[in-house]
Amino acid sequence: MVRPDPLAKHRFLVTLDPGDAYLPPAQAALLPLLAAGAFQEVTGLGGQLEVVSYAEGGHNESVHQLPLRYSWNRLTLKRGVARGPGLWSWYVAGLGDSLGARRDGAVVLLGADGQPAAAWSFRAGLAAKWTGPDLNAEQNAVAVEQLEIAHEGLSQAGLDAVLRT
Questions:
Q1: How many Cα atoms occupy the beta-carbon half-sphere of 35 within 13 Å?
Q2: How would residue 65 be classed by pLDDT, with cut points 50, 70 and 90?
Q3: How many CA within 13 A on the CB side of residue 7?
Q4: Which long-range contacts (CB under 8 A, 24 or more apart) does 111-116 make?
Q5: What PANTHER family has UniProt attached to this entry (predicted)?
Q6: 150 pLDDT more than 90
Q7: Measured on CA atoms in the order 81, 82, 87, 88, is the torsion positive or negative?
Q8: 6, 40, 43, 133: least buried by Cβ within 10 Å?
């Protein structure tokens, strides 16, 4: 049995349409040309289930753990190259609307061949926080902006769905 090599975490895309995680390989290859930014780092892929302890009377060997609700981490995108004002426009759109400008999206991990290998879709995302680059004339560093996305849930696309042709 041949085991596949582990996926490297340095090749990925972030898009603002969850359907992008299911594109055929030929179309997925076009995503870097259309992406709103080239991100250096994505953190926050995760969530947690809040659990309440309930001690049942007369049942002394354990305490019941009852599920209450899920909460999702904010996705934090750090980028070094902007390819247009799309992300800034999304953030500003949420400032003037009490409901915000919600967007679905996906984080797509690419394999060594550049094709999608795994993907996580998020739904009802809001551009919750934007941080501009730190500027310093004494440093020769990349100007990095940050965008935090608050969302209402993650789902992982299976490898067979991602690689569907």
A1: 22
A2: very high
A3: 16
A4: 111/7, 111/11, 112/5, 112/8, 112/11, 114/11, 114/29, 115/25, 115/28, 115/29, 115/163, 116/21, 116/23, 116/25, 116/28, 116/162, 116/163
A5: CONSERVED HYPOTHETICAL PHAGE TAIL PROTEIN
A6: yes
A7: positive
A8: 6
Q: What is the pTM of this model?
A: 0.73
Q: What average pLDDT does the structure give for the chain? A: 77
Q: Does the pLDDT at position 91 exceed 70?
A: yes
DSSP the chain: -PPPPPPPTT-EEEES-GGGGG--HHHHTTHHHH-SEEEEEEE---EEEEEEEE--TT--S--EEEEEEEEEPPEEEEEEEE-SSHHHHHHHHHHS-TT---EEEEEEEE-TTSSEEEEEEEEEEEEEEEEPPP--TT------EEEEEE-S-EEEEPHHHHT--
Domains, the chain, in order of start with CATH, read 12-162 (2.30.110)
Q: Residue type at 132?
A: G
Burial letters 147-165, b for 16+ CB under 10 A, else e: bbbbbeebeebeeeebbee
